Amino acid sequence: MKPLGVDNQSFFRGGGNAGCRDRSGPAHPWLTGLVTRARQDRVLGLLVREGDWVTASTLADALGVTPRSIRSYVTAVNARVAGGVAIESGPQGYRAGPEAAAALRVEADAGTPRDRLHTVVRALLDAPEGIDVFDTAEALHVSPATLDADLARVRGLLGGTELTLERSASRARLRGTEGAQRRLLSKLAHDEMDAKSFDLSALRRTLGEGSVGARAFGPFKTELVARLGDLGWFVNEFGIADVVMHIAIAADRVAQDRPLDTAEPVGAGERPTQTQVAEIIADLSERHLGVRLGSADLQHLSTLVLTRVVAPDRGVAASTLPGLDPETEAVVRDVVTAAADEFLVDIAHDDFIARLALHVQNLLHRAREQAWSRNPLTRSLKSTYPMIFEVAVFIASRLQQRLGIPLPDDEIAYIAMHVGGRLERSRRADQLLTATIVCPGYYDLHELLRSSVDRSLGQAIEVVGVETRVDPDWASIDTDLVLTTIEPVTPADRIVRIQPFLTDADVERVQAAAGRIRRSRRLARLRAELERYFEPSAFVRGVGGDEEDVIRGLGALLRERGVIDETYIERTIERERLSSTAFTDALAVPHALEMTASRTAIAIGIADPSMPWGDGRVQVVALVAFSETDREAFQTVFEQFVEVFSERDSVQRIVRRGTDFNAFLDELVAVIDG
C-alpha cells in the first residue's frame, strides 16, 4: 500500500534501526580523512554559533551520526590545541571553549586526502609537460595506486572547467587554457577557505609556499580599497576577498611566466573607469608584489573589480549611474514590480531599481565567466530574514527566466541585501511601540526624562504621553509601554520601572520589555494563523528520502484534499532547486513561489533522527501551500514560523513530544506561549 503516491521506502523511514545508523563512514578509505575533518569542523562551527551548551544527541541529529561519533570528533578537535580547550564537556553536553577559534584555524595534517589532492593539482598546473606518476607518488610517500585514486579525484574537479586530464603511460598532464587553469586554482582556494573570510594562509596552501605573503598583500589590499574610494566608489568588503584571491593567483602565475592568453588591450571598448582601475592594479602589483602584469591580466582583474566589489556612491543620482544598460534596467523594473505585488513589499522605487539593475548587469558578466561571488552572510541572511530572502529568490527566479542566468545561493544573498536595505530605509514610523512616561512633576524633571528617553530609545519606542500626577489613572493608560519612576498599583509586563535620571540599566530593561512585547505579538498572530492553516490529516512522523521525495509525499496529502494540484507540487520542487528552503538548522519550509492553492494549508513531516536537506540537515518539514486570498498572512506565517524553529531547545521539545498531530500542535503552542 502506497497512500502517498510515492515509494514508502523513500518517504517513510524503515523500522528497527533504520535512520539511526551512523552514516559517517565513507565507502572509500581515501575519503575518510576528508569527511571526518569536515565533520569535526562542523561540530565546532555549530557550537561557536550556538554559544551555549548543546547535547551530544542534538549535535548527532544535526550531522546525521551517532552521539558516539560526536564524542570522537570532540576528542579530535581538542587534540588540535595542545594544552588548550576548543570544546568544553559537561553534564549539559558540549560548548565552544576558549581555544575554539584557534582550533578552526589549525591546518589539516599534511598527507590527508585534501592536502595531497591540492599538491597533485598544483604539480599538474606548474608542469606544462605533465608529471611522472611514479616519481610524484614517491615524493608524496604514497603508492602509485593511491596516486591513481588522487588523479581520479582530480578528474572529478575538472567538470565545467574546460580542462582535461590526459594520461599516457606514466605521465599525466592537464590540457586547457590559462584562464581555465586559474579557475581551477580559484576552486581549490575556495575549498581551503570553506566559505570563511579571506585566509591568506589557506590561499598559500593552494598556490604553494613560494607565493605572495601576508607582509606584501596586507598593504596591497589596504591601498587598493583606499584608491577605489578616492574614485568615488563604495567597496564591497564581502567581495573584496574574492578579488584579492584572483589578484594573488594572477601575480603567482605571471611570476612563473604564465600570463593570461592574449586579449583586447586595456582601453578598447571599456567603461571609462576600467582604465583607471587597471592602472591602480598595475601600480600596486609592481610596488607591493614585485610583478608586472600584462594587458590581458589587467583587463581581466579590473573587470573583476568593477563587477564584484564596487558600487557607486549613494549621492550619485540613479539616472546617472555609469554604464547602466536600458534593456537590463527594463527587465529589472518588471521583475521588481512583480515582486512588490506578489509579496506586498515597498521596493518598487526608481533608485532601488537602478542600483539593482547595475548589480544584475555585473551578474551577467559573472555568469558568462562562471565567476560567482561568495557571500559569507548567506546562511545568516536566510535564517534571520527568511521573508527578505524569499523576495530575493523570487527576483532571482524571474531574472533567470528573462535573462537565462543561473544564480547560486551566494548571489541570491546579495540580492537579499539590496532588498533588505530598501525595506530598512522605508520602514514606517508606526512600527514603533508607543510609550507613556509617568514622572510626578518637580520643576522640569519630566521634560529632562522625556528628552533622555527620546535620545536613548527613540529608534525603538515613541513617547506619546507624559503623566506628572503622583496618582495617575493607571487603567486609562493604553500605550504599549509605561515607563514609570514610581511604583505602579499593579505590576504588569508592559510597565517598566526607571529612574528619574535615565541609566544604562534602565535603557536595557526598556529594550528588553519592548522586545518581549514585539515577540509576543508576532507569536500571537502566528498562533492564530497556524490554528487556521494546519491540516490535521497531513501530518507524517518518520519522513525520509531526499527533498523531492518528501515534497511529493506531503504534497500528495494536500492534493488529495483539493488544496493543491500536481502543478503546485512541481513548482514547489522547482523552487527548492533554486535555493534550499532549509531556513534554520532544523526546519525546511518548501513552497511554490506562486500563491495558487485553493486555500492556505500546511502539511508537516517529522524526521527523527534528522534527514539531509540542501547543504544541511533538518528535523521538521513544513510544506506550505498559500492561496492568493491569504497573501497578507504570508509574511506572518513565514517569518514567525521560522523564528520559532530557530531555537534549538524548542525544536527538540517539539520533535520529541510531537508523536501525533495533536501532540505536535500542543507542543508548538506551548513553545509559542512561552
UniProtKB/TrEMBL annotation:
Residue span, PTS EIIA type-2 domain: 531-674
BP terms from Gene Ontology: regulation of DNA-templated transcription
The keyword Repeat belongs to this UniProt entry's keyword annotation: yes
Keyword Hydrolase: no
Domain PRD: 323-429
UniProt keywords, alphabetically: Repeat
Name of the protein described by the UniProt record: BglG family transcriptional antiterminator
Organism for this UniProt entry: Microbacterium kyungheense
